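Hi V.,

Quick status before I head out on leave. The structure for the redesign project is tokenized and pasted below; the design run finished overnight.
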């Protein structure tokens, strides 16, 4: 009997010991895989794409986590601006490749679809490329952080400034997918709230080459402001062709509701000069942004400085790594990691101080810029002059407590 009791106690001890070891191993799990999902070859490739993958790699290197025992792997994918391809890649990454976190995802239609997959798989999604404010309102998730910019910010900073400057009648040229719809919706709200009027609009296919029929409708509307609710190659093509039609010379003003550094490069200062727009990052903003941008451009094949999307990938991951370090390991519970990210104030050299709101929206300062005249530019990427700063607590989508009340899996 005594021997049986001893054997039972020994077996119990071994089970407890094994459980303790397993628990310790779980706590010490410091292996994480990141997937940079972007447009690697289409109209958003210059503003995100390979540059976003490089920004992610730089964040891994700068985090210092590898020296502290972490293993961090990075893979990349091309969603081709198609939601079905984006979700297929995301599922493959979570189910087969054991990815923990997806970053970037320019294209709001793809982003909203991937957002649902990440929530289902309990991963982490740090959005930098997509603009739709629905990611932190109607479709907010406990697994998503929206870092760089959104349609609410673009509408309220650029749209409001133009209406107050006398641009009280608008016609929209809108990309026909989720991003364009959200940007037109949010800007329309700002225009009407400030006493303006929307006199018309037209939707164009994504990545179209010929804007002539759309621009003729905008010109015929006689609206003071033609709001370009598009991005990337669509923005550059519409601005170039508007110049060919003499729209600005005829007295109407173009509102580039989303403009990137790479867009200005593609358009040229001669055509882009005088455009007002809003961004949350510019490479030449201060000493810290210049230092990062120098390192980044030295590693880019075209030597371009980072766009705000690429900067957002870097800053978002740096904050994510702070949360992982604070947790001490086990990066595989996405909702838990995002919850930790929300408890730590954001503070990085590219966007400055801010915070992650309960709905996942990151607040930081936004800047109203104007494109310089050719005579004002002192270098190949010296394009912007600062017009004004919008504090983070005013720039971004107010927390919609009713829409985000059920932040549960």
């Amino acid at each position: 009997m005594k021997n049986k009791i001893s054997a039972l106690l020994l077996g119990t001890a071994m089970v407890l010991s094994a459980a303790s070891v397993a628990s310790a191993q779980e706590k010490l799990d410091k292996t994480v895989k990141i997937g940079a999902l972007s447009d690697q070859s289409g109209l958003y490739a210059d503003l995100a794409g390979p540059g976003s993958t490089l920004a992610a790699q730089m964040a891994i290197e700068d985090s210092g986590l590898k020296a502290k025992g972490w293993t961090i792997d990075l893979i990349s994918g091309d969603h081709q601006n198609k939601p079905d391809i984006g979700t297929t890649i995301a599922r493959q990454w979570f189910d087969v490749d054991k990815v923990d976190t997806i970053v970037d995802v320019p294209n709001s239609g793809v982003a909203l679809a991937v957002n649902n997959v990440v929530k289902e798989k309990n991963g982490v999604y740090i959005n930098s490329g997509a603009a739709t404010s629905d990611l932190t309102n109607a479709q907010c998730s406990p697994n998503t952080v929206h870092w760089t910019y959104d349609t609410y910010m673009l509408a309220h900073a650029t749209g409001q400034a133009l209406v107050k400057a006398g641009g009280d009648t608008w016609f929209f040229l809108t990309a026909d997918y989720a991003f364009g719809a959200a940007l037109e919706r949010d800007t329309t709200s700002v225009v009407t709230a400030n006493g303006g009027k929307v006199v018309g609009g037209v939707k164009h296919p994504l990545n179209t080459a010929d804007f002539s029929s759309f621009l003729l409708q905008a010109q015929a509307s006689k609206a003071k402001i033609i709001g370009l609710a598009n991005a990337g190659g669509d923005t550059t093509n519409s601005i170039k062709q508007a110049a060919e039609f003499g729209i600005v010379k005829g007295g109407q003003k173009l509102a580039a509701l989303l403009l990137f550094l790479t867009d200005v490069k593609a358009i040229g200062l001669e055509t882009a000069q005088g455009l007002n727009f809003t961004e949350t990052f510019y490479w030449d903003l201060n000493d810290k942004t210049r230092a990062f941008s120098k390192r980044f451009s030295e590693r880019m094949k075209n030597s371009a400085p980072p766009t705000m999307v690429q900067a957002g990938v870097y800053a978002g991951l740096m904050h994510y790594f702070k949360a992982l370090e604070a947790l001490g390991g086990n990066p595989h519970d996405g909702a838990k990691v995002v919850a930790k990210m929300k408890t730590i104030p954001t503070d990085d050299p590219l966007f400055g101080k801010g915070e992650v709101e309960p709905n996942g929206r990151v607040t930081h300062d936004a800047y109203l810029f104007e494109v310089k005249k050719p005579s004002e530019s002192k270098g190949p990427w010296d394009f912007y002059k600062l017009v004004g700063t919008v504090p983070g607590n005013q720039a971004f989508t107010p927390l919609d407590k009713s829409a985000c009340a059920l932040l549960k899996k």
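Above is the designed sequence. The two ends are 51 Å apart (CA to CA).

G. will cover questions while I'm gone.

Best,
W.
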